[in-house]
Design brief:
Layout lengths: L1 H13 L3 H78 L8 H10 L11 H8 L9 H8 L1 H26 L5 H6 L11 H5 L2 H39 L2
Helix pairs in contact: 2-3, 2-4, 2-9, 5-9, 6-9
Length: about 250
Amino acid sequence: MIHYFRRIREQLISQNKVTKYLLYAMGEIVLVVIGILIALQINNWNEERKNREKEKYYLNSIKSSILLSQKELNRVIDDAKLISSCADTLLLLLAYKNFAPLKGRFLDSLMFTASDYSLISLNDGGIQELMNTGSLGLIQEERIRMHLASWNERMHQIRKFESETEYLALQYQDYLNNFIDSRKYITDSLGEAIIPSKRQAFLNDPLLANYLDRISIIHYNMHKKYILEKAQLDSLNSLINEYLLQ
């Protein structure tokens, strides 16, 4: 084909047909430009197709992450509620000096459950892969991008709260060690871990009440944060399903 066009140019020049040669040259340039534009368009189409395939891959991966994370959120939601409830129940009984129910394993259950804490272990591999590769821009739906863009900040806030609950729990456990004998809890199925000679001082200690108050409040707030995050993930999952069905 190139040889053919060259022969035409040579004939036009040899015949001194400058005008026709210029017109031919312009036409050839136009053909080259059109060819380049078509090639660029095909390349753009291919890139767009690859981007949409990547987008679909990331969104499906995120959906899988959300499914696993929702189960983990249900666990910590229940844990935070139980810890807060036990701490609050024990605090109220102490505040009103209603010591009668506080004996045996009932006291142990409230006391030790209040000393617990939970750390969420989210399966966020799909989201982290998207964020770490700088591929957030591949997601065309703005509402999905907004959810994902705020993910790390939301997790930072949750981790911050969790570190506070862990620190408080460890402090409270150290405090309990001054009043309990774990051997009794193991050998006496009907007894309680509190050392008898320290029982009255323990139940009337303002420091115990302060610990329980802080534990109840911080786990109540954690419970709300976990519920809010679960709602965020439910919303994100719905948006992804809606987008993928388009």
